[in-house]
Design a protein that fits this description.
Helix content is 54%, strand content 3%. By secondary structure, the chain is mainly α. It has a two-stranded antiparallel sheet with strand order 1-2.
């Protein structure tokens, strides 16, 4: 059973000075700089990727947003912003690999969705991603996972096809893990362009 705030500390202090209550997150305590900072320092694939740097969740989010735009070229800015922020809760909860999320169970997913809803509200998006857009983001996410798996995480093509399916309708990216400062800067720049 989760601890309540009065049973002990259930909040995270952010570098912005905000104090984010993890059990009852408020949009008022969400800052894009905190998100970018955290996501740039969270490694995809539990850090089991090739390269001088970890492939960060910030880079993954940028890739998913780009692939969603390739899958639907006239995708509105709001939808692209939703794609960019699809894994934003990981700035505080980290990137748990899918098998572990399944083992943890539905309570974990509910927790993640509450935090995502607060993030969406903070940036003027619907708290819940519309079904059609969610399907598109999942397709882009699976394509990103396929390319990350085969280019960085040691998966063979056959194995990646089994777990992530065949990426269709997108160009294969050339993935190079970035230093966290560069990944953070690119994430913030893309966010600013989508919200300008």
């Amino acid at each position: 059973m989760a601890k309540s705030a009065k049973d002990g500390r259930a909040w995270q202090r952010m570098l912005s000075g905000r104090r984010l209550d993890l059990l009852n997150p408020s949009p008022l305590d969400v800052e894009i700089e905190d998100i970018a900072h955290g996501l740039a320092r969270v490694a995809r694939w539990n850090g089991q990727t090739s390269g001088a740097h970890a492939f960060s969740v910030a880079q993954h989010c940028l890739l998913v947003e780009r692939l969603a735009g390739e899958l639907r070229p006239r995708l509105a800015r709001e939808a692209r912003l939703t794609a960019l922020l699809h894994d934003a809760p990981e700035y505080v909860i980290g990137d748990l690999i899918s098998p572990f999320k399944a083992a943890v169970g539905i309570d974990y997913k509910d927790f993640e969705l509450r935090l995502l809803a607060a993030i969406h509200i903070r940036f003027g998006l619907p708290p819940k991603t519309p079904t059609e857009l969610n399907t598109l983001i999942k397709k882009a996410d699976a394509a990103a996972a396929f390319y990350e798996a085969t280019q960085l995480a040691g998966f063979g093509r056959t194995e990646a096809l089994k777990f992530f399916g065949s990426p269709r309708g997108v160009r294969a990216p050339r993935l190079v893990p970035l230093a966290h400062a560069e990944a953070q800067a690119q994430f913030l720049e893309r966010f600013k362009r989508l919200t300008a």
